[in-house]
């Protein structure tokens, strides 16, 4: 992402280029229907299943995040107040993901946790799910908060680094991506090609917004970080879809899903605090009208891409299920 390269590119190209690439990827997926025949899944070897889920996870996770990160040059040239608005937009995206995963944790996976016996004592599934959720959310938040405080004390004399926040954002999104992979893995192992295609298309649209969410923090730094950082953050944010796919195909455990979602929620809560601190570093007021509006736009946009898009696809407008 050399300055010499993108300085010669018109701003309108920087703005709409990722959209054109996304449309092309979406069109190729829809027209080719690469997951149209899963009849051989039951006879497939473990290695074949892992390899296929790796490819699917990369398509649904890493590629759309990379597409979204292409907006970095455009975001970086924004006026500081608009950059703060973009950070608030990223906060809205994260907030929606946290709300959505809380709903999944409580109403989908939490209620399906089976009763267990621990040390001779019967423990109800709902109790086990609740304890797991509290420990996952609280423990993750506490660990990330302590790490943040340590980092800030260590770098108290220097300017707050947007790159460090970007890595935390990527980590939080990556933890969330495990949940997406769980759904993909279950659909694949059950041989449900229509549902699998639905999930991949929905997650491609969903995850493309994670790219600018990650790089928004980097954009406020004066220097452009080396390309390896963008590659690393893209893999951290989107790569766990692959891990989730593996877990979903072999370890179909509701309590595992509850733990994954709880960890992601705890991470997101801490990252939201980091994003607010990053805005506050440059401006006295975090909750300006512009920032509040873009936060709401980010939340609403993810609702449209996730819930509305999925509903449209399920109704058979694009994919007959």
Automatic annotation (TrEMBL):
Quick check: keyword Transport in the entry?
no
> Where are the bilayer-spanning segments?
12-31, 51-75, 82-99, 119-144, 165-189, 195-218, 230-249, 255-279
Q: Where in this chain does the entry annotate a coiled-coil region?
A: none
Species for this entry: Natrialba magadii (strain ATCC 43099 / DSM 3394 / CCM 3739 / CIP 104546 / IAM 13178 / JCM 8861 / NBRC 102185 / NCIMB 2190 / MS3)
Q: Which UniProt keywords apply?
A: Membrane, Transmembrane, Transmembrane helix
Q: What's the name of the protein?
A: Transport protein (Probable substrate zinc)
């Amino acid at each position: 992402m050399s300055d010499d390269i993108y300085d010669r590119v018109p701003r309108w190209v920087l703005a709409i280029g990722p959209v054109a690439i996304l449309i092309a990827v979406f069109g190729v997926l829809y027209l080719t229907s690469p997951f149209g025949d899963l009849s051989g899944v039951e006879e497939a070897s473990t290695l074949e299943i892992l390899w296929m889920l790796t490819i699917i996870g990369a398509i649904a996770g890493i590629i759309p995040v990379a597409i979204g990160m292409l907006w970095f040059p455009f975001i970086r040239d924004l006026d500081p107040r608009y950059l703060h608005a973009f950070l608030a937009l990223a906060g809205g995206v994260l907030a929606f993901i946290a709300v959505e995963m809380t709903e999944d944790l409580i109403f989908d996976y939490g209620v399906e946790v089976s009763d267990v016996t621990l040390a001779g004592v019967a423990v109800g599934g709902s109790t086990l799910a609740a304890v797991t959720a509290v420990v996952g959310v609280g423990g993750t938040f506490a660990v990330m908060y302590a790490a943040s405080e340590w980092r800030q004390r260590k770098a108290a004399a220097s300017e707050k680094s947007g790159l460090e926040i970007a890595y935390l954002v990527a980590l939080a999104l990556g933890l969330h991506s495990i949940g997406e992979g769980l759904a993909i893995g279950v659909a694949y192992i059950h041989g449900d090609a229509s549902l699998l295609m639905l999930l991949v298309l929905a997650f491609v649209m969903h995850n493309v917004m994670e790219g600018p969410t990650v790089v928004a923090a980097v954009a406020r730094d004066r220097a452009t970080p080396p390309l390896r950082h963008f590659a690393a953050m893209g893999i951290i944010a989107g790569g766990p879809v692959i891990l989730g796919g593996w877990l979903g195909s072999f370890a179909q455990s509701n309590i595992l899903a509850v733990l994954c979602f709880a960890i992601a929620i705890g991470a997101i809560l801490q990252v939201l605090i980091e994003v607010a601190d990053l805005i506050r570093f440059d401006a006295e007021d975090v909750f300006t009208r512009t920032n509040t509006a873009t936060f709401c736009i980010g939340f609403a946009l993810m609702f449209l891409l996730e819930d509305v898009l999925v509903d449209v696809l399920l109704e058979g407008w694009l994919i007959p299920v």
